Amino acid sequence: MPEAIFDDLALEEGAFVEVSLQGTDVVIKPKRLVEMEDGRSPEEEKLVEAGLEQLKNGEHVPWDNLRHELDL
């Protein structure tokens, strides 16, 4: 693939692409391994952000304690 097209598609080495044929044209599109509809909802994203903030503030418990609390 020409470097200019690679750059225009914002690809990185090893990226997945979808290749299709439309008439006589070859169409190359960047491909995500996880589709957006399979990602986190806005509510889930807020929970993740809150959890990361707690970790940054030192608010955490050791894994062994959590595993015991969750009976894992």
Care to describe what's here?
- This protein has helices at residues 3-8, 42-56, 63-69; strands at 17-22, 25-30.
- Strand 1 (17-22) and strand 2 form a beta hairpin.
- It starts with a helix and ends with a helix.
- The mean pLDDT is 88.
- It has two domains: 1-35, Pemi-like Protein 1, Chain: D (Ribbon), CATH 2.10.260; 40-72, no CATH class.
- Strands 1-2 form a two-stranded antiparallel sheet.
- The chain contains three helices and two strands.
Quick structural summary:
This protein is α+β, with helices and mostly antiparallel strands and 72 residues long. It contains 3 helices and 2 strands, in the order H-E-E-H-H.
Low-confidence stretches: none
Sheet with most strands: 2 strands, antiparallel
Count the E strands.
Answer: 2
Strand order in the sheet with the most strands: 1-2
- Work out the helicity level: 25-40%
Report the sheet-strand fraction. 15-25%
DSSP helix count?
3
Here the CATH topology of the largest domain equals Pemi-like Protein 1, Chain: D
Principal-axes shape call: elongated
CATH class of the largest domain: Mainly Beta
What's the number of structural domains? 2
Give the name of the CATH architecture of the largest domain. Answer: Ribbon
Rg is: 21 Å
Give the integer mean of the pLDDT values: 88
Topology pattern, helix = H, strand = E: HEEHH
Q: How far apart are the first and last residues' alpha carbons, in Å? A: 49 Å
Q: What structural class results from the helix and strand content? A: alpha+beta
